[in-house]
């Protein structure tokens, strides 16, 4: 066996046997000496000496070259292992600390909040006329048809039976003129713990402008939801929607997402007067009136609107709970939203800037109706007028007017600029309180 030194390898093969003061090399081909063969003892001595020299060279090489490399590799492996162990320990520690200090898990949140979410079924009587034969033979009398029903969600806000929901969930059961239940209509509430025995609910108050309503059932010791602070939410936070998508068949469904945006304004919706919370947690028909919950199991919003259009996906909205409770508390105490200003007009949403340009008319709010004896009526605003400015500010929608109204109080007088019969008029409107 021969050890190859990289620095002298070529010389070794060129000059296999030579001697210097510092180096000694041996050739495997030893020429026979001319003298007589040595004896057995001499041969043994020679072999022993040669073996000793070779062994010494190998051992020396090991300690000089191989051993340091092996030790270095071992040290690197040991350092790497220690590093991994340290990383694992650190990661586990961080995970444990995170688990101990984090908010409740989604499962815990669902178990905590779900009992406070109810199912609401609205049944409205429906009628139809007899067929042509009935009209002749039975004097055209109307026959009752299977009642139609709508289903939604609600949130228990007081343990003695007060429930918050969306106004559109119960609107079909209400007579728009009297504000009372239609004859034969009923609103039923289903609790998660007793979903086979409905409670008959009474309407406490409703507000179509903000799409909020309060109903009440005759029950005690109900699990009222814990309310959070919607003013403190941030984009990216956990958002959990709990409700009944598709109706009572899927009662208590839980979907998870994040807060996608805050202070959103959605044109064409009834939730006027404040901005909405946007979330990508799935909100489907039946979820309306249900809860949007944060990571602490607190209600931060009331699920209300979902944009369903081509090109949009996972775009849901909720009414901030802080604003909702202002409306709800007023409905409970006064049966209407106290301090709200009434103008008394209905705007035509089909009148857009494009339509205005097409007919060479000014952009603004086209008045399609004026409520009798309202602030607008008393000021002289009439059906067919186009409101171009409200309180000196150009307006293009009823929402624009409502936003300006929020800056005023009952009794304030504001100027309203209208366009009528190719003439611009400025009227003074005294803002009155709405008790509807």
From TrEMBL:
<dbReference type="GO" id="GO:0004252">
    <property type="term" value="F:serine-type endopeptidase activity"/>
</dbReference>
<dbReference type="InterPro" id="IPR051201">
    <property type="entry name" value="Chloro_Bact_Ser_Proteases"/>
</dbReference>
<feature type="transmembrane region" description="Helical">
    <location>
        <begin position="40"/>
        <end position="63"/>
    </location>
</feature>
<protein>
    <submittedName>
        <fullName>HtrA2 peptidase</fullName>
        <ecNumber>3.4.21.108</ecNumber>
    </submittedName>
</protein>
<dbReference type="GO" id="GO:0006508">
    <property type="term" value="P:proteolysis"/>
</dbReference>
<keyword id="KW-0472">Membrane</keyword>
<keyword id="KW-0812">Transmembrane</keyword>
<dbReference type="InterPro" id="IPR001940">
    <property type="entry name" value="Peptidase_S1C"/>
</dbReference>
<dbReference type="Pfam" id="PF13365">
    <property type="entry name" value="Trypsin_2"/>
</dbReference>
<keyword id="KW-0378">Hydrolase</keyword>
<keyword id="KW-0645">Protease</keyword>
<dbReference type="InterPro" id="IPR036034">
    <property type="entry name" value="PDZ_sf"/>
</dbReference>
<dbReference type="Pfam" id="PF13180">
    <property type="entry name" value="PDZ_2"/>
</dbReference>
<feature type="domain" description="PDZ">
    <location>
        <begin position="331"/>
        <end position="422"/>
    </location>
</feature>
<dbReference type="InterPro" id="IPR009003">
    <property type="entry name" value="Peptidase_S1_PA"/>
</dbReference>
<dbReference type="InterPro" id="IPR001478">
    <property type="entry name" value="PDZ"/>
</dbReference>
<keyword id="KW-1133">Transmembrane helix</keyword>
């Amino acid at each position: 066996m021969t050890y190859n030194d990289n620095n002298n390898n070529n010389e070794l093969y060129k000059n296999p046997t030579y001697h210097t003061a510092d180096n000694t090399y041996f050739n495997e081909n030893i020429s026979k000496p001319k003298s007589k063969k040595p004896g057995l003892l001499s041969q043994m001595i020679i072999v022993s000496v040669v073996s000793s020299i070779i062994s010494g060279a190998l051992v020396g090489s090991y300690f000089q070259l191989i051993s340091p490399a092996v030790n270095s590799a071992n040290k690197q492996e040991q350092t790497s292992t220690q590093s991994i162990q340290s990383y694992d320990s650190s990661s586990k520690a961080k995970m444990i600390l995170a688990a101990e200090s984090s908010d409740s898990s989604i499962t815990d949140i669902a178990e905590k909040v779900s009992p406070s979410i109810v199912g609401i079924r609205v049944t409205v009587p429906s009628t139809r006329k007899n067929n042509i034969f009935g009209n002749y033979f039975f004097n055209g009398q109307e026959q009752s048809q299977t009642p139609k029903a709508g289903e939604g969600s609600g949130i228990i806000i007081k343990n003695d039976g007060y429930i918050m929901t969306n106004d559109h969930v119960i609107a079909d059961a209400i007579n728009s003129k009297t504000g009372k239940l239609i004859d034969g209509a009923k609103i039923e509430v289903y609790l998660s713990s007793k979903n086979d025995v409905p409670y008959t609910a009474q309407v406490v108050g409703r507000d179509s402008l903000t799409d909020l309503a309060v109903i009440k059932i005759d029950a005690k010791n109900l699990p009222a939801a814990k309310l959070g602070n919607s003013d403190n939410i941030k984009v990216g936070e956990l958002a959990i929607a709990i409700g009944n998508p598709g109706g009572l068949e899927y009662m208590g469904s839980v979907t998870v997402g994040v807060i996608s945006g805050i202070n959103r304004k959605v044109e064409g919706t009834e939730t006027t007067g404040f901005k909405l919370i946007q979330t990508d947690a799935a909100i489907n028909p039946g979820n309306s009136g249900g809860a949007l919950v944060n990571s602490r199991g607190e209600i931060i919003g009331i699920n209300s609107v979902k944009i369903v259009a081509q090109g949009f996906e996972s775009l849901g909205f909720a009414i901030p709970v802080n604003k909702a409770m202002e409306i709800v508390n007023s409905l409970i105490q006064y049966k209407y939203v106290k301090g709200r200003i009434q103008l008394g007009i209905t705007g035509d949403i089909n009148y857009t800037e494009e339509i205005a340009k097409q007919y060479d008319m000014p952009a603004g709010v086209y008045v399609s109706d004026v409520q009798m004896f309202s602030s607008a009526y008393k000021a002289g605003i009439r059906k067919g007028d186009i409101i171009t400015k409200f309180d000196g500010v150009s307006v293009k929608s009823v929402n624009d007017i409502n936003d300006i109204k929020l800056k005023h109080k009952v009794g304030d007088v504001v100027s309203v600029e209208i366009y009528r019969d190719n003439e611009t008029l400025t009227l003074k409107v005294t803002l009155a309180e709405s008790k509807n």
